[in-house]
UniProtKB/TrEMBL annotation:
Belongs to the NRP synthetase family. The lineage of its organism: Eukaryota, Fungi, Dikarya, Ascomycota, Pezizomycotina. SMART domains: PKS_KR, PKS_PP. This is Carrier domain-containing protein. It holds the Pfam family AMP-binding. One of its GO terms (molecular function) is phosphopantetheine binding. SUPFAM superfamilies: Acetyl-CoA synthetase-like, ACP-like, NAD(P)-binding Rossmann-fold domains. The keyword Oxidoreductase applies. It comes from Cladophialophora immunda. Residues 534-611 form the Carrier domain. Keywords: Oxidoreductase, Phosphopantetheine, Phosphoprotein.
Length: 1280
């Protein structure tokens, strides 16, 4: 039988109680006390004011106040006015508060003057600490209050904490709290004289006592999570009931183990928000013998689900206390993955139906539909159930037990760790009162960290926890090893006075826990227990034996002069070497310390120093080191340096030739310049004697990538060197000679590793760049520096070219040592540029394989994941994971193209993909190629991979297994892509087109992966089910003949690609034959034929030869697309006559030559289509482009005349008028004044050539009776 009238809303129930206990104390805080009748008057006055702000049914009243009596008054007033209160937490950051208000759109916000500045202008406000006028005026004209039995209208909206994504506004109707309070009154009723302290879950607790005549005591924010202050308040206010989170209770018991003595009147303590460990339950019962402890399980979306008396539910054999019997067992379901009910005692996901559900999430219908699904077990119309996301089971006793959170496990190197299980073992077996276990670091550095609060009154049966200065506890490992698997024992231990709690949720706030000791200090300072000995116990012979075992070579082949890397070592074998050192010598050596020096003697000293506990000062003082390292010595200054285009250089120095990008840079430099190329090849201790090995090493690398040809050595010279050494490892004489030879330096070498800390990469990446700049200043050479998107933190919006972190932000925002070292190096390059050295910085993204050959970087992590997914038959399904795959040939050619531009206006260029594709689309394209995969959540995919692939033998044919086995990335790593906006770069490199990441590119890559032995079969474009080749669908343009001028780049090349896909036969004309051939090689030709003809449109004879070739080899010309054109920014007063002449010759005469060659034959056949690229400058004159505009006005006049004169002949004439487009036209100008004044980018996203090409295809595809005469296509933000 209900305890309260469950047919009435909250406001009506409160009014009923006012009539019953008018003079009882209803509400108090530290400043005021109100009886029920006094509280009723305050509520009535404020509700009238709210109604004048049009608050009515389902209207929201924002409450931005501290926990206080006024907070309660505001909530009751909102309900009485017929609206609902919106919880606005003072703890919200400004951005979150603004987002919540924007999302919820409250009719008015109730607040204090001090908080007004947090609320954006335009939101109506009521400030309670200012005098309110006319609160009891005439209300006859206001709309009526909704009926008090309308329990489906909104009561309140609270936002989730946002720990799982963007916060959601949870909309609860009156029915939910009314039924919830009735259920709780059935468990533990209240009466006049009871005093309920409301702190944690404030809004969920403040109304319940007011429906039974009890007193609400508002606990101020500053006392809610301060155990001493909270206990003082509970004692002084004679509290009889309150609610805490288990974390808060544990903190209170740590400070007050005999809390019952302080709180003799506390009759009821509700626990909610987290699981209650058996240990905490036992301690609480002992500390509060006269208090009923109720474990309550609820969710914001469902109110109470289960509740029980902890004293009656404890099981000494269990880790956690059950949450009690379900309050509505008929609508409490434990379901398996297929949505079926599990058998009794089995674990599954908890779903809850019934009448206590929230409406859903405001303004988020899709999220609501996903969380609140139809209830298949309830036949009532419209019944729903809520997916809690918790794992649970029903015990034989009928009690509900929460066993964990779905997806809440910590993933550690492929293992799944349940933090709660580890925490329970720590508290049970060590002298620890309370703890929190989390993971810290990424990839190979990811470790479990235990944050512990010591139990200072523990009995002798639990040993004291011993933690050394580095955060290690060998004793704890020994104690826990019988109870936990090795991977579940924390590697690091951090002692805290108490665990911090979230100001909103009251749960442990993991984000506020202090950082553990740095990975470098942890891994590099301490020797393992029992293995420390004198220096003679570890000698060079021991090191050599371990080398031989790791490298799988004979000990006799190893000499003190060898480097570990010279003998075939790499990062994977280095990880194996470190493990062997740990196993054999008992010394855990971090990989970073083994990188350099990587000689026998170097490793001997490293092992000894680690064993003896020498600290790494660099990592310990990283911010100061970064600041110092990013300062360039005053002596590094150019004396007489002018920018030199790579194409004009006689001698070029290239570093990184044995790297992936460096090899392609060498290939493209050989093809595009006539310079001698000096290649610095790394040796540990370089000398001239290393020259033959340097050549052999480069040759092996180029052969693997398909780039080697014997003629290379006619123009290449090898320089054995080392970036980490002074003068690049060269002798003083050799370095001095180099300063007299080099005009351009391409610095592409770097030590790349996302695991190593800054200290391990500092010498090569920072010191090496410093030496390059020293050389360049001495030589007066231009520096082309290859940077990375890793100098910026993850961002989905895209960083602009001028973006650069402040040095103070680097340690926090750039998590890996590689990004930090490249940031410092780039900072040095920038400083050299400010001093007058010609420099250009090229920021690459994730570089993928060659777009034509597929040759790729064998160490690429994304490749490894894709290949392993194909072999596994399952692909990771990660929301927000995008695949940046920028082909290496594009990056290399773009760098060289930009290096030939001598303008110094812009010196930072972005070459990453500004809009990376979703990885899900990559796997869809691969399915078309015959590689079907099923999607799996990341953690499930990792587990399946570990089980099916992770234990297989690696090697060349299964190298991708080795890559993933060396370190599986986290979901955060996959999502944390750095996007580079290329708005300023794109116009300057437009001649080099970026290949699209589509099925064509992926087919190329898959063919290469198959050739390497990584895939079971080559790609094939077949139906996934039928296995038959996909038929070519013939479109309206298939088989027609088109001539395209200006087809070597920009719009012309894009039109060629688009029409090839449509199935046309194409004749491509342009001045540059090699560029035409390159365009042709990239075309995806469905059924047509493509010919190329070198053509200068200013020469009528050459145009006629192009048309004749088309007629002879392809057939009569149906379509002419005239794309050839030039554009020069020139000031009329500067009289750039040559530019003007060229503009008239190409744009005007070129068009006439094309028309004269095709129009007569088209008219005679009664069909044809002329398309000419005009410009929006042909409709409106732009300053700085006077002559260009005139030429385009000429084009418009010519086409209009042609259109009018040939009406009725079957000829169609289309003028395409693009606005600002990313083509090479934007880089032609030489009039610096005009460029500066009129040619600077606005920052708007401009058109791609493909955008223009698509509009042309649209015009061409129209039926014969339809003429698209003009197409004006512009960037959205740049209309004329």
């Amino acid at each position: 039988m209900p305890v309260i009238d469950i047919t009435k809303d909250l406001s009506a129930l409160f009014r009923q109680q006012v009539q019953v206990t008018p003079d009882a104390v209803a509400l108090e805080d530290d400043t005021a006390t109100y009886t029920y009748v006094e509280l009723d008057r305050k509520v009535e006055a404020l509700s009238n004011l709210l109604r004048k702000h049009k608050v009515g049914r389902d209207s929201l009243v924002g409450v931005l106040l501290p926990r206080s009596a006024n907070y309660v008054i505001a909530c009751l007033a909102a309900l009485r006015a017929g609206g609902a209160f919106l919880v606005l937490e003072l703890a919200y950051p400004p951005e979150l508060l603004a987002d919540v208000i924007d999302d919820a759109q409250p009719a008015v916000v109730v607040t204090y003057r001090a908080e007004v500045g947090k609320i954006k202008e335009g939101i109506p406000l009521i400030t309670l600490d200012e005098e309110q006028t006319d609160t009891n005026g005439d209300v006859k004209d206001l709309p009526p209050v909704p009926a008090d039995d309308d329990l489906d209208r909104l009561a309140f909206v609270s936002y989730s904490s946002g720990t799982t994504g963007k916060p959601k506004g949870i909309a609860n109707p009156h029915r939910a709290p009314v039924l919830s309070y009735d259920l709780r009154f059935g468990i533990r009723d209240l009466q006049p004289g009871d005093r309920v302290a409301c702190n944690v879950f404030f809004i969920w607790e403040i109304l319940r006592p007011l429906l039974r005549g009890a007193t609400v005591v508002a606990v101020p924010d500053e006392a809610s999570y301060d155990p001493p202050a909270l206990v003082d308040l509970l004692a002084s206010k004679n509290i009889t009931e309150t609610l805490m989170t288990p974390t808060l209770l544990a903190a209170v018991l740590s400070r007050h183990p005999k809390i019952g003595v302080r709180l003799p009147k506390l009759r009821t303590l509700w626990l909610n928000g987290e699981v209650v460990t058996t240990d905490l339950g036992r301690r609480a019962i002992k500390a509060l013998p006269n208090t009923t402890l109720l474990n309550c399980y609820s969710a914001c979306e469902t109110h109470e689900i289960a509740c029980g008396d902890i004293g009656k539910m404890l099981d000494d054999e269990a880790n956690y206390c059950p949450v009690g019997p379900p309050l509505d067992p008929e609508h409490t379901y434990i379901l398996d993955e297929s949505g079926q009910k599990v058998e009794g005692g089995e674990s599954g996901e908890l779903f809850v139906g019934g009448s206590l559900l929230a409406r859903g999430y405001i303004n988020r219908p899709e999220t609501t539909a996903k969380a609140f699904t139809p209830d298949p077990f309830d036949s009532a119309p419209g019944s729903r159930m809520y997916r809690t996301g918790d794992q649970a089971r029903i015990l034989p006793s009928g009690l509900l037990e929460i066993t964990g959170r779905v997806g809440a496990m910590i993933k550690l190197r492929g293992y799944s760790v349940v933090p709660g299980k580890v925490e329970h073992a720590i508290v049970q077996h060590l002298a620890v009162r309370h703890c929190a276990v989390t993971a810290h670091g990424e990839a190979l550095e990811r470790q479990l960290v235990a944050y512990i609060v010591r139990d200072k009154e523990s009995s002798s049966d639990r040993p004291e926890l011993e933690v050394n200065e580095l955060g290690h506890s060998p004793a704890a490992r020994r104690t826990l090893s019988p109870y936990l698997a090795h991977y579940m024992i924390p590697a690091l231990w951090v002692e805290v006075e108490e665990l911090p709690t979230n100001a909103v949720s009251g749960k442990v706030d993991l984000k506020r826990l202090p950082p553990p000791p740095s990975p470098n200090a942890v891994n590099g300072n301490g020797a393992l227990n029992g293995h420390k000995g004198d220096h003679d116990s570890i000698d060079i012979e021991a090191i050599a034996e371990i080398w031989a075992a790791s490298l799988k070579i004979s000990r006799s082949t190893i000499t003190p002069e060898h480097s570990f890397f010279d003998l075939g070592g790499h990062s994977l074998t280095l990880a194996d070497l470190s493990a062997r050192f740990s196993r054999v010598l008992g010394v855990k050596v971090p990989l970073a310390r083994l990188v350099d020096p990587a000689t026998l003697n170097g490793h001997l000293e490293t092992v000894r120093s680690v064993r003896d506990g020498h600290a790494a000062a660099v990592q310990a003082h990283l911010p100061d080191v970064l600041r110092k390292d990013s300062s360039l010595e005053d002596s590094i200054r150019p004396t007489n340096a002018t920018i030199c285009a790579a194409s004009k250089a006689n001698t070029i120095l290239l570093t990184g030739v044995t790297g992936f990008l460096g090899a392609f840079l060498l290939n493209d430099l050989l093809e595009s310049t006539s310079a001698k190329i000096l290649c610095l090849v790394r040796f540990s201790d370089p000398s001239e004697a290393d020259l033959p090995e340097g050549i052999a090493r480069m040759r092996r690398h180029l052969l693997d990538l398909g780039l080697w040809r014997d003629s290379i050595m006619e123009r290449v010279e090898i320089l054995p060197g080392n970036l980490s050494r002074p003068r690049l490892g060269l002798s003083p004489d050799a370095f001095e000679e180099l300063t007299g030879r080099v005009q351009v330096i391409f610095h592409a070498a770097a030590s790349v590793n996302l695991v190593y800390p800054y200290a391990a990469l500092r010498d090569a990446n920072v010191g090496g760049t410093r030496e390059i700049l020293r050389l360049a200043c001495r030589a007066g050479a231009t520096v082309q520096y290859i940077s990375t998107n890793g100098v910026l933190p993850p961002s989905r919006e895209g960083w602009s070219e001028d973006s650069m972190l402040d040095v103070d932000d680097v340690p926090e925002k750039l998590a890996d040592g590689y990004g930090q070292s490249k940031w410092v190096a780039e900072k040095l390059v920038r400083e050299a540029g400010l001093r007058g050295l010609p420099v250009k910085i090229h920021r690459a993204g994730t570089i993928s394989g060659h777009s034509t050959t597929g040759a790729g970087n064998a160490w690429d992590l994304l490749n490894a994941i894709i290949v392993e997914s194909i072999n596994l038959g399952y692909a990771p399904d990660v929301e927000g994971w995008r695949a940046e795959m920028t082909p290496v040939d594009f990056v290399s050619k773009a760098i060289i193209h930009l290096s030939n531009q001598t303008s110094t206006t812009q010196f930072v260029f972005h070459l990453g993909d500004p809009d990376p594709v979703q990885t899900r689309s990559v796997f869809k394209d691969l399915e078309v190629l015959g590689y079907p995969t099923k999607p799996l959540p990341w953690d499930d995919w990792v587990g399946r991979w570990q089980e099916n692939r992770g234990t297989l033998k690696g090697g060349d044919g299964a190298f991708t297994i080795d890559i993933l086995r060396s370190g599986m990335p986290s979901v955060e790593f996959l999502r944390g892509i750095v996007v580079l906006n290329n708005a300023a770069t794109r116009p300057l490199r437009a001649v080099v087109e970026r290949p699209k990441v589509d099925s064509v590119l992926l087919e190329t890559y898959a063919r290469h992966w198959f050739a390497r032995g990584w895939l079971p079969h080559p790609p094939s474009r077949q139906h996934a089910l039928g296995g038959t080749a996909q038929p070519i669908r013939r479109g309206p343009l298939s088989g027609r003949v088109a001539v395209i001028t200006g087809a070597s780049s920009g719009i012309g090349a894009a039109v060629a690609a688009a029409l090839a896909r449509e199935g046309l036969h194409l004749a491509l004309g342009a001045r540059r034959k090699d560029a035409l051939e390159a365009v042709k090689s990239r075309l995806v030709v469905r059924e047509g034929k493509v010919i190329v003809q070198q053509t200068d449109v200013t020469d009528r004879k050459q145009v006629e030869r192009l048309i004749q070739a088309a007629n002879d080899e392809l057939g009569p010309v149906d379509i002419l697309v005239s794309c050839a054109g030039v554009m020069y920014y020139t000031m009329m007063a500067n009289a750039h006559i040559e530019d003007w002449d060229r503009t008239v010759d190409v744009n005007c005469k070129g068009l006439l030559h094309c028309l004269s060659s095709v129009v007569p034959s088209m008219i005679s056949r009664g069909s044809g289509h002329i398309v000419a690229i005009s410009s929006d400058a042909g409709r409106k004159v732009f300053p700085g482009l006077g002559v260009y505009s005139a030429s385009k006005f000429f084009v418009e006049a010519t086409l209009q005349s042609l259109r009018l004169e040939t009406a009725g002949t079957g000829l169609r004439v289309t003028s395409v008028q693009p606005g600002n487009t990313a083509t090479e036209l934007l880089g032609m100008s030489t009039d610096a004044e005009a460029i500066k004044k009129y040619g600077e980018p606005t920052g708007a996203q401009i058109l791609d050539p493909e955008d223009v090409a698509n509009s042309i295809v649209y015009a061409l595809r129209q039926p014969q009776h339809v003429a698209v005469n003009e197409v004006l296509i512009e960037p959205r933000e740049e209309p004329i």
